[in-house]
Amino acid sequence: MDNGFKFNYTGNGSSRGANITLNFNALAVWSLPDEFRILINPGNASVKKVSMTATNALGEKGTAWTGYEADEMPKNQITEIIMSPKDWCDTEDIGIYPITLNTLRIDLGASAKGEEFEIQIPAFEACYTKQGGITNAVAENQTVKVYPNPVKAGESVSIAVEGQATVSIYSLNGAKVAELNCNGEASIPTDGMNGMYIIKVTSDNSVKIAKLMVR
């Protein structure tokens, strides 16, 4: 298929436990989409359930599935399945990056032994209604005062904090490299750091984000 993929299989004559599982080999998505969308055309195959699984960087797991207990997925037409990350994790927390896609599983109904089937997946997409991910968080919340910025590696950076707050620093791959609780201005050393980082300041009333460049 030009923009998707397909499965071909031969019926085994059994209605118990038959399934097709696609392992994405830990496909990581760094820019958080509003939803993942799969389009499936089962052809003449009897499909009872379709599910996909994902995990975020905090170990939280999400599953989306569509089941057909009494009947089957409509044959020879496209059915849409949606997974929305905001249904199972805090999409405002940059610490959840990346979202890792794990598996797509298709549970099959009864099939005649030796019968040939083809299941088409014409689209598997990450959908965005607005620019997502870390870069979007920075653009919308550039309100934290950080100085000096850029900062020379090994020197300390000062972060203006109003009242009690937690200051966290993340690399662009989502790894937390530093965190401290403070009341007022925070000072964080940059030993061993190099490149672009994201600073997140969390208080009772707000979450603010800024960029930090370490040279």
UniProtKB/TrEMBL annotation:
Pfam families: Por_Secre_tail. It comes from the Bacteria. Residues 146-214 form the Secretion system C-terminal sorting domain. InterPro entries: Secre_tail. This is T9SS type A sorting domain-containing protein. The lineage of its organism: Bacteria, Pseudomonadati, Bacteroidota, Bacteroidia, Bacteroidales.
